[in-house]
Amino acid sequence: MKGLFSVILLVICMHSFAQLAKSTHPYRTIRTLVADLNNDSKPDTIKLISSIDGRNNFNKISITLNGDGTTTFKARDYWTVVDSEFLVKNKNAIHTKLLFLKKTAKHAAILLFGVLDGAGYRGEFSMVNIENNHVKMVFDALGEGTSEPEIEWPVELTDLKHDGRLCFVYTMIHEMDGFSSDEQRDKGIPDVGPYTSYLVYPVTDNCHVDKPLSKEYMEKYSVFAGYEYNEK
Predict the structure, then answer these.
(1) Is the entire prediction scored with pTM above 0.70?
(2) Pair type for strands 108-113 and 125-131
């Protein structure tokens, strides 16, 4: 009975949160951020714009490169605070919790995080590439029930090949069935749980999964047994 009550309470809370986020108002700018996005030593501007409730929720972003016009994107759902777990491993290049920015000498990438609900499903996850003074939304995953991949657990945004090209890595949320002791790990006995792949997306204007690079990543940091989740 206690478990059933918890499930019902979770559904009610999720429904209430969804209703809150869908309430609409006239668009207003909730944050204005300044950073050099194209390595020309001039300040560029990012505006986070919202027509929905919630202090940290927004559904439109405009990016203005100094002297080169403004590009605006509208969320299909909405964006919110960057996952705190992602910020443990990844250092944000801009002082905000509402988006993640990373730059190289070649380009800049912005990650926009949708809300992750109690069941592990994310409303939306988007990625913008800024390269050669061109701003493009190169990845926009809306979540379960669509053709896009489910971005449950963003892992890192990093230059894997050390060539100035950032790569986005993600995996699926999963629960381990058993954990090895320190002594067992020293003997090479692993934790026990479902197989989850780590997929790598080099951030380009034609962003798609790089399977050879994903395989290389898994062999280095985990284990490779295919590109699909496997409970067995």
Answers:
(1) yes
(2) antiparallel
